[in-house]
């Protein structure tokens, strides 16, 4: 009898161990940023994706932070800790590194921790009338802060670990086209580093990629489809892409895909960052695409190269007439990157452009943009 091999389906709950083919810093000397370009192999996974999709990574915590926790609490690194409902265990050190979230505090964790300590300050913090102080405390602090601030603890390692949540995966916009890079997936990851409450903090996944992930290592990944951020079905359609900083990622994928398909539709990219000399991500590639006509137009805004800060939305305004012409001609408009400021500024500027160039009232311009959104011609991937 012939046996049939059932292919493994990799997913969020069963991630694929992707090998790192390349991991380099895209920023030049003197930059205040670190943006990693990561190339991973999907060989043997049967995984595929389309431009606009995301890759999920299951990251690991910083071993130095894990060591600090073990040391602070004098915990036994080898203590077996349950990490599944089926009763699988890992040594505490490994469980803290790979399984649990230790860099974020929730209200619930602090409230439950209060049951494991007699510390009066902590009891005060979790009382009903101090809910705002509790939120403020949790913001920008982690498990190590909590354990240091509110001892002595009358709880075992297992009791404290039982308060922790499972490490959530991080999502990244895919920065490659699989048609241009068979069996590969590329990412553009900005390293998150900041100081809060007297300690230097490092983003779990981005700093793992920046500081510890070597070529040849593997990373557990899965594909997260994004049905709301895709190239137009028709290759004839024009596309306008606004992607400053790491927002460039999906547009590298779009451009690569359109190059492979020799799509006749025009494409226009707005990119921005701090300094042209050190932060122009993928500069050579983009300029080559422009030379070859794959990228019809490339507008760049470097905010710290001049006395007056210039952002992508200023470049949109400078080109408002042509921008509106493209929209009138049926162009799709895409935005990717910072949700807090950039996406709002770009949204408002787009309405300004439509209002001015279409000689419309504000309300009519907003309705025009809503119409584009309903037709799937205004798509955003912001975080
Ligand atoms: C759909 C989607 C696509 C994405 N695509 C990309 C991409 O292409 N490239 C990319 O780099 N990222 C992307 N991200 C963001 C990415 O998923 C992670 O959130 C990011 O890399 C940080 O993860 P981390 O594990 O390094 O940091 P974490 O350990 O998760 O820490 C990040 C947290 O630190 C806190 N924080 C950060 N800076 C400060 C500060 N200055 N002060 C105080 N607190 C601060 C915030 O609470 C923040 O949420 C995307 C997110 C989504 C949802």
Could you explain how this protein is built, in words?
The structure is a single chain. The chain has about 375 residues and is an alpha/beta fold. The chain contains 15 helices and 15 strands. It has helices at about 65-75, 90-100, 105-115, 120-125, 130-140, 145-150, 155-160, 205-210, 250-260, 275-280, 285-290, 310-320, 320-330, 340-355, 360-375; strands at about 15-25, 35-40, 55, 80, 90, 170-175, 185-190, 195, 200, 220-225, 240, 265-275, 295-300, 330-335, 380. The strands form four sheets. It has a six-stranded antiparallel β-sheet with strand order 6-3-10-1-2-7, with helices on one face. Helix 9 links the parallel strand 11 and strand 12 (about 265-275). Helix 1 runs parallel beside helix 6, helix 13 packs across helix 14 and helix 14 (about 340-355) crosses helix 15. The longest helix is centred in the last third of the chain and has 16 residues, at about 340-355. It is globular and about 70 Å long. The model has no long low-confidence stretch (mean pLDDT about 95). Flavin-adenine dinucleotide (FAD) binds near residues 171 and 196. Flavin-adenine dinucleotide binds near residues 54, 103 and 194.
């Amino acid at each position: 009898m012939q046996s049939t091999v059932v292919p493994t389906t990799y997913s969020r709950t069963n991630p694929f161990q992707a090998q790192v083919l390349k991991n380099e810093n895209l920023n030049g000397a003197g930059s205040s940023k670190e943006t990693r370009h990561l190339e991973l192999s999907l060989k043997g996974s049967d995984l595929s994706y389309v431009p606009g999709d995301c890759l999920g990574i299951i990251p690991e915590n910083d071993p130095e932070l894990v060591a600090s926790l073990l040391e602070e609490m004098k915990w036994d690194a080898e203590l077996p800790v349950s990490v599944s409902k089926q009763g699988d265990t890992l040594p505490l050190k490994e469980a803290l590194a790979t399984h649990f979230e230790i860099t974020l505090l929730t209200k619930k964790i602090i409230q439950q921790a209060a049951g494991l300590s007699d510390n009066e300050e902590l009891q005060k913090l979790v009382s009903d009338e101090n809910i705002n102080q509790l939120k403020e405390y949790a913001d920008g602090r982690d498990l190590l802060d909590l354990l240091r601030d509110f001892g002595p603890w009358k709880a075992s390692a297992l009791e404290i670990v039982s308060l922790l949540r499972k490490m959530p995966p991080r999502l990244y916009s895919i920065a490659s086209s699989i048609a241009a890079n068979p069996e590969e997936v590329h990412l553009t990851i900005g390293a998150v580093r900041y100081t809060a409450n007297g300690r230097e903090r490092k983003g779990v996944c981005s700093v793992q990629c920046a500081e510890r992930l070597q070529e040849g290592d593997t990373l557990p990944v899965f594909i997260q489809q994004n049905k709301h951020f895709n190239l137009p079905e028709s290759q004839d359609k024009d596309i306008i892409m606004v992607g400053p900083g790491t927002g460039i990622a999906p547009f590298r994928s779009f451009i690569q895909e359109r190059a492979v398909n020799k799509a006749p539709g025009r494409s226009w990219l707005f990119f921005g960052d701090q300094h042209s000399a050190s932060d122009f991500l993928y500069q050579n590639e983009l300029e080559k695409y422009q030379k070859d006509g794959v990228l019809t137009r490339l507008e760049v805004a470097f905010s710290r190269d001049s006395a007056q800060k210039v952002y992508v939305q200023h470049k949109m305004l400078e080109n408002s007439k042509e921008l509106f012409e493209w929209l009138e001609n049926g162009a799709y408009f895409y935005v990717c990157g910072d949700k807090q400021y950039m996406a709002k500024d770009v949204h408002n500027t787009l309405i300004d452009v439509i209002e001015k160039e279409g000689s419309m009232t504000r309300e009519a311009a907003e309705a025009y943009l809503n119409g584009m959104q309903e037709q799937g011609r205004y798509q955003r991937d912001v975080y």
